[in-house]
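User: I'm curious whether this sequence folds into something compact or stays loose and floppy. Could you predict its structure so I can see for myself?
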Amino acid sequence: MRLNKYSGIVCWFSGGRDSALACYFSKKVADIRGWDFRLVHINTKTPRPNDVDKYIWEYAKWLKAPLQIISPKKSFAELAVEYGLWPLLWHIRWCYFDLKYNVIVEFLKQDSRALEALHVFAVRRDESLFRSRHYGKVFDVKCYRPGLCVNVWLPLLYFDSQTVDRLIKRFNIPQSPVWYKIGSSGECMCLAGTSLKTLRLIAIHYPDVMEELAKIDDAIQTVRRKGPSYPAPLVGKKLTLRQWWEEFKRRPRIDYYLDNHNYEGKRCQGSCIL
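Assistant: Here's the prediction. I'll summarize afterward.
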């Protein structure tokens, strides 16, 4: 199916570095062509730092762009208990389908203008093997369901993280403190693609968020029938998140100084593909 009529641009803004740059580019194009433009952010209803929401609104104000926030019907905590397990990249990624994919489908079904818009996603091929295999065109058509297709523009597809860094500084794009504290946008902490290092950084910089996640872990373990469920970064250690968190709180804070706080790009390894 080929689509070519644009009513404007919809830029999917996560609050991360890549989407900040991609939306900056696409807003410039919209202004030059006289197209409508809007930022769309998915609040996945996962525990996340207050810094994320603050930055999203600050960026929209800086870009002088309308911001639309959409959300799933159920929160991550509710779904985690229903599934009774943590989402894993190599086993099940229910968080992606329930918290993002289905949300986009409903958004497109209810907004006819969005179906005619050019959709901008901040996908880079060098982020993961999955993306390098499945994304090869800067302009393409993406179908979520039969008859529900949109024009897609991936302006950063062949960029590397160093180029993104350089251009963000060159264009004085506002930066989120979350990028430097935990190395990601922080907008969807389902932990499916989270590394142990990132988990430590969340615990250090956002202990309130970690406690929320630990409470979700408590609820998951309560409904389990066959052994515990471990979040992705703790599968190898065979520790529940609550066990790890309680142990972490007893450690000397020297961990803080041993971690590298430089931004490393996304760690989802394809789990958050829109």
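Summary: The longest helix spans residues 17-33. Residues 14 and 41 are 6 Å apart (CA to CA).
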